[in-house]
Design brief:
Length: about 400
């Protein structure tokens, strides 16, 4: 990114780890590098979740639901995004909404999320169209009529019948919806903080509750199958999920701004305790709302930490993973594409998305190969697509 986090993809401009502040708008803000590492971990876990869905499940659900529930890492992205947006841009929208500040904000956000989204989408369309002749016939996830909503970032608003094309990119649509609201949220907080906090907190609770228990969600592949009471909505009410997580992140940042809370959450033991709670929540498939609450505490603790966890997060490899995390998130579809068209790994039993099972050791080996290839591909797209296009757009239109 140029300025901060996105989808969940929290990130600050590319700087050395030693840099403690960076010029992002007209003022300097502290570079929260530990969140960069957290973003990288979350991207890897999303990739493993999709490997189990698309290629082969190597940990049966009856043994652990950990990876089965890692779709929730997207909610962690949303929370980090709201957190860092307020960290970076709160002063730009403190008094009023000026045209120049709005322009810089939206150009920066567009430059961060859209070029790689468009590149990955069009590359996937070319592969499907010219190498598979639209799937012969096209599979339900790759309908030509769904290309335009994906290009226009409308594919989390219920305008398609199913998650389509580059499946993870629904969250980019939801993320951008949150960006459109952010200047108004920041101004609301600046002018009426107490009322804003109460209003936004009530919205977050109501939004998550509605997704899980109120909204008329249906299974896009088989409508006769009941939809679980979870947060795993994407193409239909994904924009609500994204705005809710983003808003939760904004609230977490307000807590981070209180020195007493920041100090209380700075210890390693508390970060480890929160990580343990998240691991158990995922393993036992507790209510998604509980896990998201733990995610909020995790972002607060990782951002506040000044111990060994912060040291680990600031290692070169962890920062590298964080830097390329957006590419990891969007480029994973290309390693999953063969399985969407019927390819099976040797040793898999069962057919259908999420129903291919494989012996544990073989599954771990294949998954590691998949992750290594994904990191290599992601480095290439980060180096030659994501970063250059971001810089070009910001230089051309950001000032």
């Amino acid at each position: 990114m140029t300025q901060a986090a996105t989808l969940g993809h929290s990130a600050m401009p590319s700087t050395s780890i030693a840099d403690k502040s960076v010029q992002v708008t007209d003022h300097k803000v502290e570079y929260l590098s530990s969140l960069t590492a957290l973003r990288g971990i979350a991207a890897i876990l999303v990739a493993v979740f999709h490997f189990e869905m698309a290629a082969a499940r190597f940990i049966p659900a009856e043994q652990s639901m950990f990876f089965e529930k890692c779709y929730l890492m997207v909610d962690l992205f949303f929370i980090m995004s709201g957190f860092i947006m307020l960290h970076v841009y709160s002063k730009d929208f403190k008094e009023n909404l000026q045209g120049e500040s709005l322009k810089k904000f939206f150009v920066a956000r567009f430059a961060r999320v859209y070029p790689l989204h468009l590149f990955s989408l069009l590359l996937l369309v070319v592969i499907v169209r010219w190498l598979t002749d639209w799937g012969n016939p096209p599979i339900i996830l790759e309908q030509p009529s769904d290309i335009l909503p994906n290009i226009l970032l409308l594919h989390s608003f219920g305008v398609t019948d199913i998650y389509s094309w580059n499946i993870p990119s629904w969250s980019i649509s939801a993320e951008f919806a949150a960006y459109l609201l952010f200047p108004f949220i920041a101004l609301f907080i600046s002018r009426k903080r107490l009322i804003a906090v109460v209003t936004l907190a009530l919205f977050v609770v109501a939004a998550y509750y509605s997704i899980m228990y109120v909204l008329p969600r249906t299974n896009p592949i088989n409508p006769a199958i009941p939809v679980p009471h979870n947060l795993n909505t994407t193409f239909d009410y994904g924009y609500i999920r994204g705005i809710a997580g983003f808003t939760a992140g904004v609230l977490v940042y307000l807590a981070f701004g209180l020195q007493s809370i920041k100090k209380a959450f700075s210890a390693d033991w508390l970060s480890l305790l929160i990580l343990l709670a998240i691991g158990l929540s995922l393993h036992f498939a507790l209510n998604d709302g509980i896990t998201v609450f733990f995610f909020s505490l995790l972002v607060l603790s990782i951002a506040s930490n000044n111990g060994k966890i912060a040291t680990f997060c600031n290692t070169r490899f962890m920062q590298f993973l964080g830097d390329i995390s957006y590419s990891i998130y969007l480029m994973q579809i290309f390693l999953q594409e063969p399985f969407s068209h019927g390819y099976l790994l040797p040793g898999t039993v069962g057919v259908g998305r999420g129903r291919q099972n494989i012996e544990f050791s073989s599954g771990v080996m294949y998954c590691l190969i998949y992750l290594i290839l994904l990191v290599l591909i992601s480095y290439i797209t980060y180096r030659w697509v994501e970063r250059p296009s971001r810089r070009f757009i910001n230089r051309a239109w950001g000032s």
